[in-house]
Amino acid sequence: MKTNRIPRFACALLVAAASIACGSGPGDATGSTCPTTSTLTYANFGQAFMQDHCLACHSARGPQSPKFDTVAEIRASSSDIDRSAAAGPNAVNTYMPDGASVDEAERRKLGEWLACGAPE
Questions:
Q1: Can you say whether residue 63 is alpha, beta or left, with left for phi > 0 and alpha for psi between -120 and 50 degrees?
Q2: Which of 42, 30, 102, 94 has the alpha carbon at shortest distance from 68?
Q3: Is 67 helix (H, G, I), strand (E, B) or coil?
Q4: Which of 7, 16, 24, 81 sits a CA distance of 20 to 30 A from 49?
């Protein structure tokens, strides 16, 4: 009786490919904290950051969920945003925005703003 068995090297390739694919998602929490001197708000930072880097996909008009049209929606997804796009002492996450470059200084501000509770 003939069996359709996958050769060992093919299995190894499949496992390696799956590991790479699974590792391409959001990263680790940045460990960002809110300094007592923080001046970042939605009005002077968050709104422009979201508009420039997130809302093309993550708005009511965009194709992706979650949505970030309001500060409440941003706050509800803050840990996911942190693990996807922010930077801090423990991680620099560049998973999002997809296909766009955001410098690390802006990612660090995002981490700080989120750690402060995304104040308006």
A1: alpha
A2: 42
A3: coil
A4: 24
Q: Where are the domains of the chain?
A: 36-115
CA 57 to chain centre: 13
**CA–CA gap between residue 72 and residue 50 (Å, rounded):** 13
Can you tell me the distance from the alpha carbon of 78 to that of 23, in angstroms, rounded to the nearest whole number?
21
Which residue bears the tokens 């959001």? Answer: 26
* Greatest CA separation for the chain: 74
**pLDDT (tens digit per residue) in 16-70:** 333 334 445 799 999 999 999 999 999 999 999 999 999 999 999 999 999 999 9
Q: Which sign does the torsion angle of CA 72, 106, 44, 31 carry?
A: positive
* Residue 27 parent element (H or E): none
pLDDT in tens, 62-105: 999 999 999 999 999 999 999 999 999 999 999 999 877 999 99
